Amino acid sequence: MTSSTVVLALAVFGASAVEMVEALTIVTAAAVTRGWRSAIEGSLAAALVLATLVIAVGVPLARLVPIDILRVVIGALLLVLGLDWLRKAVLRASGHKELHDEDAIYARTVAELSCVAPGSSGAIVPGGAAQAGRQAGSWRHGSRDATGFTVAFKGVFLEGMEVVLIVITLGASSGHLALASCAAAAAAVIVSIVGYLVARQLSEVPENWMKLAVGVMLTSFGVFWVGEGAGVHWPGSDLMILVLVAVFAVAAALLSLAMRRIAPARQAVALRSGPLP
Asked: pLDDT tens digits, residue range 28-70?
């Protein structure tokens, strides 16, 4: 495997792992609160829809669109995605944005679902968690629950859409759609197994550092492919991707350090005028 395919596989795997950790938080909350059967069925249904999207969109895109046009368009899209991931990661690393807390998300989802009547469309019932708890015995083990199915489906589908976008863009523009799909599937399987073993201990995953690394790789691929599609001949060919990764990693680290120095001033402003946007 060349350096570009290794970085591609790592980028897809990392992005997929991050999104799947977030999806698993929602699925676990739905399973514990509403029942495992409905949560698993909702997750599998969403995964099937996402896989269909990859096949239906990715394969024709890779075969029918000229490679130079594909690389310019997809490279620009990757730049948008990568820079957005980098921006959020830098803000979190410098203290200007709250860290992503899976435990808090889990607790909030459980609290919301505990107040929904079994078999309902999602309406909050009088009596809240207490009434839902008294009714839980009939549906938590084995029976289907529409709310649990819907919440799990939405969690996996919404988080997985960004994975699909990354798989299609990276895979189609590089000619390695199968490799990108396998990397995403491997991440989903590994995260599911680890999540099953550690249950709710999802906050131990270094998610914010993973997002920073994925942002660096997506941005690097974006710059590389926009250049290639525009006719730029990179020194060292695919090895230039590693150079770009190093450049953006250093830039992100320097930005984080610089932002930490101005964080106290920002926090002081926040105390006077309200929370940061």
From this structure: 888 877 788 888 899 899 989 988 888 888 777 767 777 777 7
Q: Is the pTM of this model over 0.85?
A: no
DSSP letters for 70-135? HHHHHHHHHHHHHHHHHHHHHHHHTTSSPPP-HHHHHHHHHHHHTTB-TTSSSPBPTTHHHHHHHH
Q: What does the DSSP 8-state code read for residue 205?
A: S
Helix, strand, coil percentages (3-state) for the chain, rounded to 5, are 80, 0, 20
Provide the token pair at 109: 């989802």
CA distance 166 to 201: 27
**Max CA distance (Å), the chain:** 67
Q: Residue 209 is which amino acid?
A: W
> Where are the chain's structural domains?
3-273
